[in-house]
User: What shape does this take?
Amino acid sequence: MNKILGMIGLAKRAGKVVSGEYLCDKAIKKGESKLIIIAEDISDNGKKAITDACTYYNVEYIVFAKASELGQFTGSGRRTVISVNDENFKNAILSKIERND
Assistant: This one.
């Protein structure tokens, strides 16, 4: 799990991640988002809003980690939603998840 969170942190430092529900929703609607990462402890309403947007705009999403962990590895406070805006980082993160790193 730390390797996956580390990859998210690396993507953030490379400028390929935005976080927070508002900015992620914007990234989805602009077609910038390649992968949405939703915290396990997001509210039901927040989760529904983001997953509905992902479904409508055909953006892949996963539920992963707690909001505090996502915030820690993106250098922010608590974050419930993260948008990965790069295809290579998306593929690397999903590959690590599939391998259970």
User: Anything to note?
Assistant: The chain is about 55% helix and 15% strand. The CA atoms of residues 29 and 49 lie 13 Å apart. Helices lie at 2-13, 21-30, 44-57, 67-73, 87-98. The beta strands are 17-19, 35-38, 60-63, 81-84.
